[in-house]
Design goal:
Elements lengths: L4 H22 E4 L3 E7 L2 E7 L4 H14 L4 E4 L2 E4 L5 E7 L3 E4 L3 E4 L5 E12 L2 H7 L3 H21 L3 H5 L9 H7 L2 E4 L5 E4 L5 E6 L9 H16 L4 E12 L2 H73 L1 H16 L15 H4 L7
Parallel strand pairs: 3-4, 10-12
Antiparallel strand pairs: 1-5, 2-3, 2-6, 7-9, 8-9, 9-13, 11-12
Length: about 375
Amino acid sequence: MRIPPKFKGCLTGVTVLAVVFILFGAFFVINETEQGVILQMGKPVRVIVGNRTPEEIAELELWITENAPGVKLSVGAGLYFKIPFLQQLHVFDDRILEYDDDPSDVVTRDKKHLQVDCYARWRIQNPLLFLQSVQSVYAASSRLDDVIYSVLRQEIGQSDLIQIVRNSNDPIGMNEYVRLVNNVTYSDTTDVGILMTESGEVIEVVRMIRVPAGQGREAMLERVTDATRVMTAQYGIYVLDVRIKRADLPLANQQAVFTRMQAERNRISTRYRAEGHRMAQTILAETNLRVDSISSLAERSALLIRGTADSTAASIYAEAYESHPDFYRFMQSLETLDNIMDANDEMVLSTTGIFQYFATPPGSMR
């Protein structure tokens, strides 16, 4: 029986389409950012993962041997084959994924309410277990939300507020002041103030809450990450890191806290000013003491020099007056006239008496 040409052409076209459809349905590509699971009649037959360390490959092979015997494991991106219509491919992301949800209200051990906003980085470590347990990234985010916040709420409930926001015991905002005073002591008492010792030194007693060893924000988040990693392993998820983005006080308490912080800053600034005033007064007193000492020494030296000069001048005058007594009497007369007469005074002198010297020829009066 011969097939008409027109039916033969249609049959050839259908055959070509069927072959193309089968080929395109049989081969698929897994790129570097993907991993997948092939199911046959609802049962897994092959797991394809991206690049893994030898330890991770060995751990995954051991899990498949114990929980899914007969399933093949392929590693790396490339071209793969599956039976069309009989086998189905489920592709998952092989990159690091982000978890970030809305803030949640938690209570610390010292009864402080906080609005904590955290985030996490995770990846699908076991795609077959991930498919069997949560099936999708959206469902995995819901499981992560329950696990992360439950662990984080438990850890915060066992920690004080100071341990959540800090890692060290260094004084906040007091470094410059400590270097200025250089005499600050710390205690665990509630006494806060400046003490003045008998020697005049300023000692400040600061109340400081110590962060115990092994505590603090980083140590707490490491414990949260480890606990979350253990709890999410049953879903084929590996949590790389959990971090707190923000830890804020409720809006009702923020203003009171800001007011207290402002009062604390004002107290520290007042201490700055008081200590600066004290140091300025000390420097001024020392400067005045040095000025008075230098002035006294200079005045003493000037008096000694003046006394020595006056003594020398008197000695010279005495020697000169002894050599020329008439000249001495003449100078004394001039000084007397200068002291008792003004510019407009007139005098009537005789040739005798104290002014006889002026009427006597020079050298004739004895």
